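User: Mind token order:
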Amino acid sequence: MSTLLKNVTNCIWHAFDSLQNNDVVHKSKLKVLTANIGTLLDLYGVEKGLDHFRSSQELTFDEFRYYLQHEVFSSLPKTLNLPIARDYEKKISEVCWLVCRKTLLSRDKAVFNDDSVFKLFRIFCLLADLVQDGDDGSSHHYVVVLQPSEAGIVTEQLVHCLGLRWDAADWEALGSSIGHFKWAAFLAVLEAKYCCDHQIHPEALIEAVVEVYDVFIEDIIKKGYLYKRGYVLPTMREYWCVLQPCALTYYKSSAQKDQCGRIAIDEYCSVESTAGDGKIQRFQLITPERTFEFGTQDHKSRLQWISALRQAAAVSGGSEGYQRRARACRRGAGARREREARETKARLQHEVRARLAAEAQAQELAEISQKDNKKLEELKHTQTELERLLQEETQAKRDEEIVRSLQARVLAEEWERREELERLQEEQNKMLEEERLKRKEFERLQAEKEAQFREAEKRLKELELEKQKLDAELKAAQEKISKTETNTQALHVQLRDLTPLLKNGERARRAISFVPTTKSSSDTLIDVRAIRHLKVIDDEDKL
């Protein structure tokens, strides 16, 4: 089987599974899928051979895979360049996804969008295994399952990208309860358990899935900003760098749209740190063609990039991707652990059998010795029984003494409690008596206050009566004053009427000399004012 077909078998199985009915698919449906795959590989008309392949009109997955291997993928070169193979895998996965996406996207509560689900689907197909399903006893029925350890690696990476806490013990319990993960179970666990938090923004989910996709599908070991010294102008410029096992690609920005260059990395490359000047921490990437100088803003980032570049150089060889080889290494390590576990189990079983044989022999010797020592044991038993009875009697006497001392202590405590109760009762009676005295004092003070209140109320009524009397007197005085003012105004009017008549001097003097003796004081005051006024007028006439 070609490497490319092996890498895309899981995707093709999902497409086949969405079309199958009782483990078989009609050739007419498979022609469409085969034609699309052949078009992606620049092979046209490869679907026509299905008409003459097998006599039946339906094919099992084994038969369809056999046809793809010998009629489609066999036309490709035996060794493909890794970027070309990765591009073929992506296109074939997209075709298979178009066939089975309706089935694989169906779920109750969707958390990831369709593009993120497709990326997770590719990661699942990369790490999963195609195994025979023995539930129905059919040798033609397959299923793609993901081991709990592999699913845990993906889930842990996704959880860390979301900034959440990873619980390894919880995952082990979940993996042991579920067993192998099928696609639906894997997606349901991610959405329902690890990505169901409403505080997680949808864009954060998309970015996290892209990060995991870059790690597992694109084989990106590390990415970030680096300073690079130019070839023509020896200045340090900042680029967005993406490191893969076979190359270091740098762009103008993190959008990765404008590629500025690509440095091939192989096992002959080396990385060395150099002395930094100022804030830039420098290191060199030495390739067979030339030496590239890079820099970071801090020492920690420099160490991370040096480690990542050395790792990329170490895993640059081979025609398969880095994650596929890492997966194979993990499977090999797991197989070695299982083999060691089986060997350990076999060794333990051998030791158990030897121990059982030794125990059987020891049991025979124990039976012989038991017969010889039976009488001695009976004597020892009788002696032990007598000693036990003696100890019980001694213990009974001790218990009796203890009970008596406890009774005496209980009686003493009872008397002390009774005395305490009597003392408390006396204190309570004393407090009640004090409370009664305080209550009587309070009632006496309350009676005095009420008497004072009644006296004050009586005094207030008297004051109100005096106020009413004074108000009446004040009203009479105000009426008298008003009457006096009215009389004064009337006199002023009379005086104003007499003024023209008093301009004659003679009459004025006669009027002044004539002063009646029977006038009242108020009338006298008015006549004096009139005389003074007439005198002033007379003086003005003289002038």
Notes: The chain has a mean pLDDT of 84. The longest helix spans residues 374-498.
